[in-house]
Fold:
Amino acid sequence: MSRTHIINACIYILATLGANYTADWFIPLPVFGQVAVGTFVFGITFTQRDRLHSAGRKWIYLTIAAAATANICMSVLLAVPIRIILASFFAIVLAETADTEIYQQLLPHPWLVRVAGSNAVSIVLDTLLFTLIAFAGVLPTAEIVSLLFGETITKYAIGILFALWRQGKFIWQEN
Structure:
């Protein structure tokens, strides 16, 4: 693997770790919704994983497995509640698999189409899985709805922003 693939995989794994560590620290949004602090970091993962496609599917799935395993280990060591560990594991494995397979189908298309197309499904799937597994029965329904809304909007915004940033500049700044 190239140095770039290794760096991108490490950024992906570190982003999932940071996101899960702060998964139950909430910030209210101005009008409606709330978002976990970790979502600001986790929004990066969808696009960051897309950057691994040039290394091939096997590398992507090894990176997803490494992230899921690292999250379980970190969570156990830091006494993260089991509901968060399970939510994280299932969301990472299922949403990132969906994202990978959709992205692969979109390979003939430009970068932003591939990222937006794969994120359109994986962000919603990730948000639903994580929020419902982690917080159903723990938080009131209104708060869960608020989280679903806030998390989805924030992940899309960060994913788009991160997709527009390539090689140290935004794509409109490239020559």
In short: Helices lie at 3-21, 37-50, 57-77, 82-105, 111-135, 141-164.
